[in-house]
Design brief:
It holds the Pfam family Aminotran_1_2. Its EC number is 2.6.1.9. One of its GO terms (molecular function) is histidinol-phosphate transaminase activity. Keywords: Amino-acid biosynthesis, Aminotransferase, Histidine biosynthesis, Pyridoxal phosphate, Transferase. The structure is a single chain. Strands 2-8-7-6-5-3-4 form a seven-stranded mixed sheet, sandwiched between helices. Strands 9-10-13-12 form a four-stranded antiparallel sheet, with helices on one face. Strands 1-11 form a two-stranded parallel sheet. The protein is an alpha/beta fold and 368 residues long. It folds into two domains: 128 residues, Aspartate Aminotransferase, domain 1 (Alpha-Beta Complex), CATH 3.90.1150.10; 221 residues, Type I PLP-dependent aspartate aminotransferase-like (Major domain) (Aspartate Aminotransferase, domain 2, 3-Layer(aba) Sandwich). The chain contains 13 helices and 13 strands. The structure holds 4'-deoxy-4'-aminopyridoxal-5'-phosphate (PMP).
């Protein structure tokens, strides 16, 4: 074979493993109920759906600055809207943060089992991902701080984390921030933060308001039930927000997305109902898993809308996933993320969780 004359993909781009989305079909192509993408089983706020449907004009560009949405978010969270930037999902903001603050040869640090987009976000700008060891599937603050070198430019932390559901409490997050040099950006990715009991808030928004090196990101894809509209938002010091505004897409949130998100922000009753549902069903599901402890099943403690179930007995994660698919459900197996004997299961409706628990119990009892 001769030397290729086509355009040469940058080697750091060629090294990227593309994001693997949660499946909605079985191995043999049957459609399954999706408990594999951490979507809201209660759907979307009715007010948000109505606001989305009220947008009749698709010919006009959306507000490039998502002005009214930033005002609504500012009101809800007590933040100056000038310090808020919206994105095409929070994924866009995570990628922009890496791009704005890290480049070729720089390092981007996060914890093992951290959200898979951090690896892509680091590599796409030529930076080197540095992965700290976990502690019980969660963040070990000392281990993460020990990874920071002169070359570290960005630290990513998902709180709660996906796919483990683990949560770093307020005091530990403060300790992490205190240990990070002022010229390193700490990104606290709070995609699942609304599922945490407000009494246990991690204090990230206060850090973003007070510190010069913190970006906090949120999404409308999870508790707000608007994953199909692709809307995220972030807040931090003016210099951070300014950097992201320079490089984001000029019309990066659609008209329907902005309208739906504004109405969703104003419907906190839907958010509270979703949080309450999730908490009750997660507790019930974790109890069902704990009852199978003698068969080697274990649930990693979760503050999110999913549970990582570990398979340490005769029943393997791969076999369990097949059995759950036979019962009609897709869940997430993450061998590529170093979790060959685990399944991440999104909290669905009560009936769905009963189906999954029943399938797991019969498989665990039958496995030898
Ligand atoms: N952060 C975490 C931890 C996530 O799990 C996800 C969704 N999988 C995202 C960010 C991105 O979500 P979105 O782009 O839909 O806002």
């Amino acid at each position: 074979t001769g030397v290729s004359t086509g355009p040469q993909v940058k080697p750091w781009i060629a090294a990227i493993h593309a994001y693997v989305p949660g499946k909605s079909k079985s191995a043999d192509g049957k459609p399954l109920v999706k408990l594999s993408a951490n979507e809201n089983p209660l759907g979307t706020s009715a007010a948000a759906m109505a606001a989305r449907a009220s947008i009749a004009d698709a010919a006009a560009y959306p507000d490039p600055d998502s002005t009214a949405l930033r005002e609504a978010l500012g009101n809800l969270h007590g933040i100056d809207p000038a310090r808020i930037v919206c994105g095409t999902g929070s994924d866009e903001l995570l990628n922009l943060a890496a791009q704005a603050f890290a480049g070729p040869g720089d390092e981007v640090a996060y914890v093992r089992y951290g959200f898979s987009v951090y690896d892509i976000a680091a590599r796409r700008c030529g930076a080197v991902p540095v992965v700290a060891p976990d502690r019980d599937f969660g963040t070990d603050v000392d281990a993460l701080l020990a990874c920071i070198t002169d070359r570290t430019r960005v630290v990513f932390l998902a709180n709660p984390n996906n796919p483990t559901g683990t949560y770093l409490p307020r005091a530990e997050l403060a300790r992490l921030h205190a240990g990070i040099p002022a010229d390193v950006l700490l990104v606290v990715d709070r995609a699942y933060a609304e599922y945490v009991d407000p009494a246990d808030d991690d204090g990230a928004l206060a850090l973003a308001a007070a510190a010069g090196n913190v970006l906090v990101t949120h999404t409308f894809s999870k508790i707000y039930g608007l994953a199909g509209e692709r809307i995220g938002w972030g807040t931090g010091a003016p210099g951070i927000v300014d950097a992201l505004n320079r490089i984001r897409g000029p019309f990066n949130v659609t008209s329907t997305g902005q309208a739906a998100a504004i109405a969703a922000v104003k419907d906190q009753a839907f958010v509270e109902a979703s949080r309450a549902h999730n908490r009750a069903e997660r507790e019930r599901f974790v109890a069902a898993i704990e009852a199978l402890g003698n068969h080697g099943l274990r649930a990693v403690p979760s503050e999110a809308n999913f549970v990582l179930v570990l398979f340490e007995g005769a029943l393997t994660a791969a076999a369990a996933m097949e059995g759950i698919a036979r019962a009609g459900y897709a869940v997430r197996h993450l061998p590529g993320q170093g979790l060959p004997q685990a399944l991440r299961i999104t909290i669905g409706t009560a009936a769905q969780m009963d189906d999954i628990a029943r399938a797991l119990r019969s498989m665990a009892e039958a496995a030898k």
